[in-house]
Amino acid sequence: MRQMDKVQISTATLRTGMLRASLERIAQGERPVLLLAPDARISADIDAFLHAVLANTPDQGSHCDTDCMSSSNAGRNGGTSVQAPGPGPEAAFVAGTCLSLPRFMPFAGRVPFVPIEDGSSVLWLRCVPQVAAMFTPLQARRIVAAWPGTSTSDAGFLDALRQLDGYLVSPRQALAHDGGRSAALSRALGVGARDWRIGSLARALAIYDHDLEIAPQALRRFGTLPAAPFAVDLWERGRALPDGVDTGTALLLSSRGCRRPLLQFALDFVPPEANMMQPDAGEGAGFFSLGRAEDFAPPNAARRATLVRHATRYNDLGAYLSQLLGPLGRFLRRGQHDQQPETFAARDHDLDTLAGSRADGRAIAGCQGRA
User: Do 50 and 116 fall into the same domain?
Assistant: First the structure.
């Protein structure tokens, strides 16, 4: 059990296929519960983040009604101070807290998941938690009530979130990952003491669906897209049209070719959704188009390859530099090791010992899902 400013958080095991049963138990309790996979490694900085999330939802977590709040972590002692302005114009359902992040987009190829920046320390995901997640009793009750039928599959969790229009809040740099990650990665990407700035879901830009496509409501906040319902298929993955919309008039935002686009956007920025902030003035020159669904061409492998190359161009540069400078770095490290063998050996031993001690959930570093 964890205690933060009189808020006690229990812990329980998160197992595949057992999420509904875990939520049913949380719904019957009185305090938030942190679910951890058996091999989960969590960061030493998790307490400050969980406190910031709970402080942003004073009723222990059904809605995110504040525009933004700042939590200052004074250090390892977990000291925090919270300042929250008044309620925002709308209340959006916060379905829970996810402490891990996907590193890559969920399709073939190592395309990094790079969420758009919006000034917040968090993003919002509609996903099934695999490593670590926190739910309050009120959140659990609403999710269980919306869970379809008696199914216990994790797909039912996503169905419940769609029905509730709910998302999990997640830090932009993961505070938990599975034990399969290397110890070097664990110790190299610690978050450290920081100010957690939790923005409102009602105003956020970094909102992503289960397949990591940006949500339409987030794109509308760019001020360049219409209020009419539209589907988002930036990666040409054949996403369905909005529910209840006539296929003859439905709108689609996609990288596929469009014969009669209503709006077009260039391919200049990373991540791809950042290009929707500025419509392309050049007729026929845009890479992304908004138009009627029936006016779009079928998915095109060449266009998708262009998008993948654009999204991974910094990966290619990093690989090139690694190949170029790698031998030099190994030579320098070998020379330093020859000069100070005991110091470096002791340091490596200490780091490995520290990484191993964190496996029990007391303190380990998280990882960021960026390439």
Answer: yes
Per DSSP, what are the bridge partners of residue 178?
A: 40
pLDDT class for 168, splitting at 50, 70, 90? very high
| Whether 39 contacts 180, CB under 8 Å | yes
Co-location of 104 and 195 in the same domain: yes
On whether residue 323 sits in a domain, the answer given is no
pLDDT of residue 56: 80
Compute CA 355 distance to the chain's CA centroid, rounded to the nearest angstrom.
24
Q: How far apart are CA 47 and CA 27, in angstroms?
A: 22
Paired sense of beta strands 230-233 and 87-98, if any:
unpaired
Considering the domain architecture, whether residues 220 and 253 belong to the same structural domain is answered as yes
Question: Which one of 160, 186, 208 terminates a domain?
Answer: 208
Q: Are residues 221 and 204 in the same domain?
A: no
Domain containing residue 25: 2-208
pTM score over 0.85: no
Q: What is the pLDDT of residue 240?
A: 59
Q: What is the CA radius of gyration of the chain?
A: 22
Rounded CA-CA distance 240/108 in Å is 20
Long-range contacts of 117-120 (CB under 8 A, 24+ apart): 117/205, 117/206, 118/199, 118/204, 118/205, 118/206, 119/197, 119/199, 120/68, 120/172, 120/197, 120/198, 120/199, 120/204, 120/206
